[in-house]
Amino acid sequence: MPVAPPFAPPQLTHRRRMLVLAICCMSLLIVSLDNTVLNVALPSMAREFGTSISGMQWTIDAYTLVLATLLMLAGSTADRVGRRKIFKVGLVVFTAASVACSLAPNLESLVAFRMLQAVGGSMLNPVAMSIITNTFTEPRERARAIGVWGGVVGISMAAGPLVGGLLVDSVGWRSIFWINLPVGLAALLLTIRYVPESRAPKPRRPDPVGQLLVMVLFGALTYAIIEAPTAGWTSPLIIAFAAAALLALIGLLAYEPRRADPLIDLRFFGSAPFSGATVIAISAFAALGGFLFLSTLYLQNVRGLNALHAGVWMLPMAAMTLVCAPLSGRLIGSRGPRLPLLIAGVAMTASGVLFAAFDAETSNGTLFLGYVLFGLGFGFVNAPITNTAVSGMPRSQAGVAAAVASTSRQIGQTLGVAVIGAVLASGVGSSSYADTFTEASRPAWWIITGCGLAVLVLGALTSGRWARETARRTAERLDAGSADSAARPSTTLAP
């Protein structure tokens, strides 16, 4: 008789599964809300600290960059030592770091505390998704649960600008970090009481070399992009960081296939849906990061709106995301991911074209339409990314697969803010925002348009019968590889 794997989640009642989903969504809420609230607060923070565009970029990218480099480590560690255990540690670190951010005396300490926040955040979203995947084992029910999960992003986008604007205008920007304290504590207490422990049946070994290479790759690339407009694109420092990123990438491609338990299992990318979901996540979240960054600066620094009124203007985008995310999950459960991805690609591309080709921000009507279209597209794209990333993989690899999907999101948002900010800084130069913003931001809007087009094309190419067959073959190879490595443990390289 086969023996159940250790710490396999027990069979839970429907009510208990819904409670676990709600607890996991609370962690996503504080992480997502933190980012949307922060965007609205950027101009106020910049004025207090006397910082430039690059300083504002670092307050966002310091968080997303650390998050991106640690997500896969957190996912594999949770699969190995226990998902609930890592989830609880993440809640404690994230909540404590949020309090520290509210007390930051200068930009440098704020960036440092944001990085500490990211350490905690890296233990939340991918681990929560792994808990959800192992709690909801029936495909249709899981797709709907992931749709609810995606809807929480919409809630954070809807509440973030309004809550952030209200807090910034009434109390000050530091208060935006206080809201994480009650939610984080409540999620921690509920996790201790209701979330069952689970582990992967075959724990993965740590991969310190791979982890270091990932940190060098993303860190060096982001630094080069953000600082290039100031230092110069041909500066020896920028060239050195770009070269370091390239060498780290080459090192990853050469080293990771030699390990039995790599940090990044390159065999995952033999699945066309998984590879497509990864690139779609990078494209969609690059568009989101750039969209929010441009919108915040335009509404407050060009139109002269306060934080609350800027949040109200961004509400149509957030409301569409809130409405469309659960609908996307239901469509995936009944018809698969293809239709939501196509809708998302068309809507995001159309929104980018409105701003890039027709200067949508110069008219209230087209500005409103552009926000609605982007919110519609982003609402449909999030659920199929996660569902596609984890559905074709063995359940034992759920933590790592979910972490790769979450990492792709954070990489996308990091690069979106870095690239869009660099393009804008190069265009604005020493001029005032009001005089040059529309013209300087046009190349940035074309980049966002390209991201939407990538979602559309890849969504069509990686959601058909051929793509599903590649996913099936990849899952078989992963299962076979797991059996081989269990029989021959000596194939793993020493860390």
Question: Could you name the key traits of this structure?
Answer:
495 residues; mainly alpha; Growth Hormone, Chain: A; 2 domains; 17 helices; 0% strand; globular; disordered N terminus; disordered C terminus
What features would you describe in this structure?
There is one protein chain. The protein is an all-alpha fold. It has 2 domains: 14-194 and 261-480, Up-down Bundle (Growth Hormone, Chain: A), CATH 1.20.1250; 208-260. The chain is globular, with a radius of gyration of 22 Å. The chain has helices at residues 14-49, 53-81, 83-102, 107-121, 125-135, 139-170, 180-194, 208-231, 236-255, 272-302, 307-313, 315-335, 338-358, 364-391, 398-428, 433-461, 465-487. The model is unreliable at 1-8 and 486-495 (pLDDT under 50).
Strand content: under 5%
What's the multimeric state? single chain
Tally of strands? 0
* Low-confidence residue ranges: 1-8, 486-495
Task: State the end-to-end distance.
Answer: 35 Å
Radius of gyration: 22 Å
Could you tell me the CATH topology label of the largest domain. Answer: Growth Hormone, Chain: A
CATH class of the largest domain: Mainly Alpha
Number of helical regions: 17
Element string (H = helix, E = strand): HHHHHHHHHHHHHHHHH
Helix content bin: over 70%
Give the overall shape: globular
At the fourth CATH level, what is the homologous superfamily of the largest domain? MFS general substrate transporter like domains
Instruction: Determine the mean pLDDT.
Output: 83
